[in-house]
Redox-sensing transcriptional repressor Rex (Paeniglutamicibacter cryotolerans), 486 residues
Amino acid sequence: MNEERALPIDSLDATEMPDGLPRQEPVAAVRPSQVADRQLPEATLSRLTGYLRVLTSLQADGQHSASSGVLAEAAGVNPAIVRKDLSLLGSYGTRGVGYVVSELSQHISKALGLTQEWRVAIIGAGNLGRALAGYGGFRNRGFDVVALIDADPQLVGQRIGELVISDGTDLAAVIARDQANMVVLAVPAAAAQPLCDELVKCGISSILSFAPVPLQVPAGVHLRKVDLATELQILAYHAQDVD
Amino acid sequence: MNEERALPIDSLDATEMPDGLPRQEPVAAVRPSQVADRQLPEATLSRLTGYLRVLTSLQADGQHSASSGVLAEAAGVNPAIVRKDLSLLGSYGTRGVGYVVSELSQHISKALGLTQEWRVAIIGAGNLGRALAGYGGFRNRGFDVVALIDADPQLVGQRIGELVISDGTDLAAVIARDQANMVVLAVPAAAAQPLCDELVKCGISSILSFAPVPLQVPAGVHLRKVDLATELQILAYHAQDVD
DNA sequence: CTGTGTGAAGTTTTTCACAGCT
DNA sequence: AGCTGTGAAAAACTTCACACAG
């Protein structure tokens, strides 16, 4: 298997959906005995995924170890922050040497929760939903797309790659049948919030939405948003003075 | 659709690595005379796009004005930060009342550079590229998709919606013909960097990449990245303790 | 009185810089 | 000598809280 990917760049920002309310305490009670695995800063988190990609490439290249400097350059960040990020997972580096590629890769995967199986249901079999269903980048990274769902009877039953579009009118049943534990929402804006509510009722607590609307989810449900128009708008802003 | 590519870790600082400075764009030496329009914080920027969306729907609802509280709730943020963000554009609110929807909408659009025409070329007519070409959310927001480009002769000439896939072997010609000033890269990982370089040569300075690789671009070129796998990985992390 | 605009306080994240392993 | 791990300083960003305009 020579699956390979290369370095990340510095995926910043991204749209950030807050958990909703101005909560005060996230649930206190830190576990001092446990490694401080939990509660990695959001910023660290997105860099970690980048390091992981770099490490995968390095591993494919047969590199045994790498210093924070090398990782930093490949990931497009500052070496100090690489060390700080990694030290949050525990200290797995060797002074004077760096980090053992395979080992670090393991640790990060574990910290990110990638060792467990993630079963993704894609809701919305329109252009985007179908494109996502065919995207190899998910499966390669441990995310198994187990269902492609739409409420349109015209689409139900149609075959897309290895998937057959399931009937979304009984969402709970499909989610349960395919044992999805994560959902990608690729539906029109108007449909997003109602679906979101329904998903929460089904027990889904991780949702990646492509719908260009702010969604409200109860605390405890994790929602991330990818907003294509927003990305272009931000580019437009930056491009103004350059063009 | 997995492409791979042995990454040239050792040769990655070709383009933009600074000579020793903190990789920033020191281009501007602070222009006090210039309006403080430029240089909106990145965080503010992504919220502004959110407000814009909220305003659009308020406008459609016939609302004449809205307070920071209303905007904040709809956008899922804190009212104070709405006021702070908006005050960075200048003070367009009325004390005791709020903001005039249509007016504010204008101001934000202008600040984001959305008043000019943006002509987007999508490179890569695979699943994702085609899906993006058919995505209405771009045009609605002032981004005109003027070309869908691929180098595969099998695809060239094929019609997708209102677009005909253009031949990417002479990228410069297509970009020039269609007068694109922004590019969306929806190509396999291996193709991304070379294309990126070529685009820069064509004078493109705003690129939105979906390729899961870090891309190097010279200073002055704006690159944003959307990484689907990263999003799922971050969700996975958060979901660990919940599931 | 209502709701903006904003200094000041608070919080989070990044960078610096260096002691201390290997 | 080289590079990690980390306090401490700096910067960025958010929230508070209140004077004051309408």
